[in-house]
Amino acid sequence: MASVDLFLNYILRSNVVTWVVLGWLSVYFIATLTILFARWSQLSQWHERERASLESIMMGSKNVRDDSILKRCVSSASYSINLLKVCKNVAEKNATIGLSWLSVIASTSPFIGLFGTVVSILETFGGLGNASSASLGVIAPAISEALIVTAAGIFVAIPAYSFHILLKRKAYEVLSLVERQAEIIASNAKAGEAKSGHDQLG
User: Fold this and answer.
1) Does residue 31 belong to any structural domain of this protein?
2) Phi, then psi, of 60 in degrees rounded to 5
3) Which bin fits 98, alpha (ψ -120 to 50), beta or left (φ > 0)?
4) Cα-Cα-Cα-Cα dihedral of 64, 65, 67, 69, to 10°?
């Protein structure tokens, strides 16, 4: 309860720039958590589908499973290497959705917090210039309060950077499964073409 009162007092004493910066960082933090939970769930489900499809192909199936992303490009009736490459590019784009936002949040949050701190310190020194006394006991609390915004920026940047790495690794695992399936499909297609050519020659 005391910490809540301190925070409310800090907000009431702060200037408009500090409110804007803290609001901005709050939006960043909510966006970070939203991207993490949404993308992690989607990538985990996608990973399971592609893993099952790869196992199916390795067990002798002639085609990918219906829930694989490559199903759109590969069918028993038609096959195209170029179309398969397009599907792999689409898979890469879908797997990395949200990573650029996490990268932006991780890289800009500390600077946004620092901007808020600089403005608060400038305002503090501007107010002290008009005061009759400017002792350390007056300056130190004002500067420590100004540094709260920088701490908030770092607090937002750390999970954003960490989640960016985690999701990037998860996306890599999904794309690795897609790539293996594509290689097996391409290899089977080449083997089939070679066999049909050999049969025609025979």
Assistant:
1) yes
2) 115, 0
3) left
4) 0
CA-based nearest residue to 24, from 113, 104, 107: 113
Residue carrying structure tokens 């590969």: 74
Nearest Cα to Cα of residue 154 among 110, 189, 194: 110
The amino acid occupying position 12 is L
Answer whether residue 6 is part of any domain. no
pLDDT digit string (tens) for 20-77? 999 999 999 999 999 999 999 999 999 999 999 889 888 877 777 888 888 877 664 4
Burial 62-98 (b: 16+ CB within 10 A, else e): ebbbeebbbeebbeeeebeeeebeebbeebeeebbeb
Q: For residue 69, tell me if it sits in a domain.
A: no
